[in-house]
Amino acid sequence: MDFFSQMSSGISSTTTSTMNTGSSTIYIAAAIGIILAIIVVSAATFFWNRSNTMPKVQGFEDKKEDEEATDKEKKEGFFGGVAVGAGEPDCLRTSSEAAQVYSIFANRVSSTEEGPADFQEFRLLLSKLSCLKKDLIGTAGVVEATRYQPYATSMDIEPVSETTARCFAKTIPARDLDISLDKWSKRGKELVRRLCTSMNLTEMESSRADTLFDALMVDVSDVAKSVCLSGEPTINGKNAPRQPNGFEPPTNEDLGPYKGYY
After folding, report:
1. Which residue of 19, 130, 134, 166 has the smallest Cβ count within 10 Å?
2. What are the C-alpha distances in Å from 96 to residues 100, 202, 215, 216?
3. Is 121 helix (H, G, I), strand (E, B) or coil?
4. How many whole angstroms separate alpha carbon 147 and alpha carbon 160?
5. pLDDT score recorded for residue 205
């Protein structure tokens, strides 16, 4: 009887242990299945969301807007044409006087060593004057043609692009503008005189060259003064005086000039 009881107890224990092991396996398998399901659902959701997104095209949109703006400027007349590379001197079509005076010396042979260098400098001066006029009469009101012109100490007070920028800002004093125009004029007349001599021009041709250059300077000067010296000057978007003036008290108005030594 004891033997059968012990066998029954052993079988019961084995069955209980097997059932417990099976239950644990089922629980583990279920947990693994749940984890795998979560991973699969997460991956599917991720790829689904990625398939519905659009790439960022900010750079392409900006480029497209720039191209549309350029096309609009060309259609509405804001594009002033090519400044460099469309002829010599630069901005050739802006000034007929510059083109005519340039043609007088263009096909001549210099008889002096300094002649070629003088001609190159004269061509640069004509380019600056023509491009200055081109920017000032342009409806866009931006420094475009003159920004390609190099600075030369022999003819410039400041870079011509800087003069153009100050004109648009209405911050250039009349005195500064007159000084720049005067230096361009004097240097140009000197170069015309030297070129006429080195290229053996006749008196009539020399006179015509002088007349054309004077007409060019009058034209550029009129345009510059009408654009640069009219309107309210602004600095950083705020109104500002064009040139601060000195103050003299009323008590000094009746005083005579000082004739002594300083």
Report:
1. 19
2. 6, 22, 10, 8
3. helix
4. 8
5. 94
Give dist(CA 41, CA 43) in Å, integer: 6
Q: Report phi then psi at 239, rounded to 5.
A: -65, 140
Alpha-carbon distance 89 to 98, whole Å? Answer: 8
Rounded CA-CA distance 69/58 in Å is 16
Say how far apart CA 123 and CA 188 lie, in whole Å: 10
For the chain, the maximum distance between any two Cα atoms, rounded to a whole number of angstroms, is: 153
Q: At what angle do helices 115-137 and 96-106 cross, to 10 degrees?
A: 170
Q: What is the pLDDT of residues 96-118, one digit of tens each?
A: 999 999 999 998 999 999 999 99
Residue 24 tokens read as 């644990």
Residue 138 tokens, joined: 């342009």
Two structure tokens written together for 254: 């009746």
- Estimate the crossing angle of helix 203-228 against helix 160-169, to 10 degrees: 40
| Encoded amino acid at 227, one letter | V
Q: Is the pLDDT of residue 78 over 90?
A: no
* More reliable by pLDDT, 44 or 1: 44
Within 13 Å, how many C-alpha atoms sit on residue 252's CB side? 5
Would you state the pLDDT for residue 39? 86
143 near 168, Cβ under 8 Å?
A: yes
